[in-house]
Amino acid sequence: MKNHISSTLVLASIFALFFSAGLVHAQDGAAILKKVDANLQPESFESYRKLINIEPSGAKRDYLLYTIKKVDDKIVSLFLSPASEKGRATLRLGDNLWLYIPNVGKPVRITSLQSVVGGVFNNADIMRLDYSVEYTVQNMEDGKSEYVLNLKAKTAAVAYDKLKMWVDKKAVIPTKIECYAATGLLIKTLYLKEIKPFEGVQRPSVIETDSPLYKGYQSIIAYANVKKKIVADEVFTLEFLGKIESIR
Description:
Mean pLDDT is 89; it is low at 7-24. The chain has a 13-stranded antiparallel beta sheet. With 248 residues, the chain is α+β, with helices and mostly antiparallel strands. It has helices at 2-40, 123-126, 131-134; strands at 45-54, 60-70, 74-81, 89-93, 96-100, 108-110, 135-142, 146-153, 162-168, 173-180, 186-198, 201-210, 218-228. Helices cover 19% and strands 43% of the residues.
């Protein structure tokens, strides 16, 4: 009887030790994810981005966007080119997204999985919030030169149910992110490349993506500039979407 009690206590101690280690690991992963967000973009900023869609034939279509983000849940983008898209604007407030088209009566609702530009990037990719806002760290693998974070969406409104993120240990910047549906289907893979200094922080200047669902297609986002900027909350309203050009 005494040996049985001792064995039970040993097993309980081992379980508690593993549980404690797992909790610390999750906490470490959450801290790393916060650092990833800070390294990818300032809390509030403006940027110029070129979005390029490449078809299997090699044909390309380019878009130039001016984007402003404020804290963790507000982001607005203005299309500067091509001429057919100029003046269009998108707004994201948390999980809510809208598209403004000049000469149309009012902004229309859009979803995170749609794409206002076509190609492999969807609206959630183009109007991305901080990863730590939308995901929790389920577990973390500690490799030799990289962390691998396994992330789970906090709500069903998030575009991807799970992410697998490879993070360079030294720079604390993702190098690759796999995006999965709730069924486990791989939707796309993001590749973060060409590290450059923006606002004194080394950040990826290029994000490429491909998808097994769009074989032969590729989409690229290239950042020309990322600069800290704080604007009034009024900018992130439906009423202001037609006037974004005025704050450039």
